[in-house]
Specification:
Blueprint lengths: L2 H8 L5 H17 L9 H4 L2 H11 L3 H9 L9 H9 L4
Helix pairs in contact: 1-4
């Protein structure tokens, strides 16, 4: 599995900002590990599914962000600053 395939699976359903950050950090890690371009990343990174599970526990998914933007807490008092913080900061 190459880095791009791994990243697609590891960041599935996550917002573009999260995907970009994880991609930068992962590619930096692979560079430091001296993995050849196009090499199999599984030996260095492991299975992408547990990574996706962990990221989804920390960050809102695209669907969750859409739900916030169209209904629920956004209409019952969540202000724009708090909503925008959800895009950048992990949820508890």
């Amino acid at each position: 599995m190459n880095a791009q395939q791994w990243l697609e699976q590891a960041t599935r359903d996550l917002p573009a900002g999260v995907t970009a950050r994880v991609s930068r950090e992962t590619l930096s890690h692979l560079y430091e590990a001296d993995l050849p371009d196009g090499g199999d990343v599984l030996a260095v990174l492991g299975d992408p599914e547990p990574t996706n599970d962990e990221l989804r526990r920390v960050y809102l998914t695209v669907k969750e962000l859409e739900e916030l933007a169209t209904s629920g807490p956004l209409r019952t008092g969540l202000n724009l600053t708090e909503w925008m913080a959800g895009l950048v900061y992990p949820r508890c």
